[in-house]
Design a protein that fits this description.
The protein has about 325 residues and is of the alpha+beta class. The chain has 7 helices and 12 strands. The chain has a domain of about 220 residues. The longest helix has about 35 residues.
Length: about 325
């Protein structure tokens, strides 16, 4: 009997450690997804340029001075996309958001709607929510969110309390932060986002697949530069799409399209889909972000998320949400 109890205890302990590890890794990925994905790049440029498809407008522009090499370098070093996100915590504005949780049969089981405004007083800022509506089994008995997707959505997009407004993009040479394991995952996320080419070793079997332009990953993708318009602005669009024969476990980023203003170089929009299926993480997620210019500042207009997560030791999460931003007041 004592031996059986020891075995049971060992099994339960192993399950607890596996559950904690899985949730830590899943939490890291949630943060990654909500903060957007940067384009990692370490492929030799000469090799990459030979595989980029150009549309007729781009080909014509080359004869007038447009440099494919310079544009790809811009894609690899862009900070404007992150700057737009930081502006949601700097410039006063109104926001409205809605979350919908569904079951496997696509039936809505829980919802949340929030409206509010970011207010500034000197260097201090506060996100004031003036309307919150929740339905269904959104929270557990302790008042926390039952769904990890909703928890991370709340953590990333809704700063708590009064904070110092700062929209400065930090140095790309970021070190791992101190604190909890989850805080360190966030630090590695920042290192990945703002130090192109960095692999994320803390997520086995997945981290190295995020280096989109690495010598190992670059041959698995089709790259394209084409022209389009967004928010009334002419844009160059950089697209990456996993080749049909590699849309399996060998790639995580399935598609990514980024609209760059032809004049300013600002990212006006980004759409991407990522998916993976493994013992630790099983997900299929699409994210769309739209930006606009307000009095010289790049700010978000709308963020749309549609995700399917099969998280170890937790119920499958089918969640959609959006955030809409308006009435921007650009500060100095």
């Amino acid at each position: 009997m004592a031996a059986n109890r020891m075995i049971d205890g060992s099994v339960q302990g192993a399950q607890h450690r596996l559950r904690a590890t899985a949730q830590d890794r899943t939490g890291w990925w949630m943060t990654l997804l909500f903060c957007s994905i940067a384009l990692a790049a370490r492929a030799q440029p000469d090799t990459l340029f030979k595989h980029i498809q150009l549309d007729e407008v781009v080909i014509s522009a080359r004869s007038q001075g447009f440099s494919v090499a310079d544009f790809v370098r811009q894609v690899r070093t862009d900070t404007t996309f992150h700057k737009a996100f930081l502006n949601t915590r700097y410039h006063p504005h109104r926001m409205h958001s809605a979350v919908r949780v569904r079951n496997k049969g696509e039936k809505e089981t829980a919802t949340m709607q929030r409206s509010g405004r970011l207010v500034r007083e000197g260097e201090r800022a506060l996100l004031e929510l003036d309307s919150v509506q929740e339905t269904g089994r959104l929270r557990d008995r302790k008042g926390g969110f039952r769904f990890l997707t909703v928890e991370m959505y709340d953590d990333v997009f809704f700063p708590k309390g009064t904070f110092t407004a700062n929209n400065t993009v930090a140095s790309r040479k970021l070190e791992l932060g101190r604190g909890s394991r989850f805080d360190k995952y966030k630090s590695e996320l920042k290192k990945f986002m703002f130090d192109p080419g960095t692999e994320i070793a803390t997520v086995p079997f997945i981290g190295d697949k995020l280096a989109l332009f690495s010598p190992e990953m670059e041959p698995l993708y089709d790259f394209r530069i084409w022209s389009d318009t967004r928010e009334g602005r002419d844009c160059w669009v950089f697209s990456a799409e996993a080749k049909p024969e590699f849309r399996d476990g060998r790639t995580v980023i399935k598609t990514m399209d980024t609209w760059f203003d032809q004049v300013s170089g600002d990212v006006m929009a980004r759409n991407y889909r990522i998916s993976s299926s493994s013992v630790v993480l099983d997900f299929d997620i699409t994210i769309r972000v739209q930006n606009t210019m307000v009095n010289g500042a790049l700010v978000p207009v709308r963020v749309d998320y549609d995700g399917d997560w099969d998280i170890p030791f937790k119920s499958r999460e089918l969640v959609r949400f959006y955030l809409a931003y308006s009435d921007w007041e650009v500060m100095p």
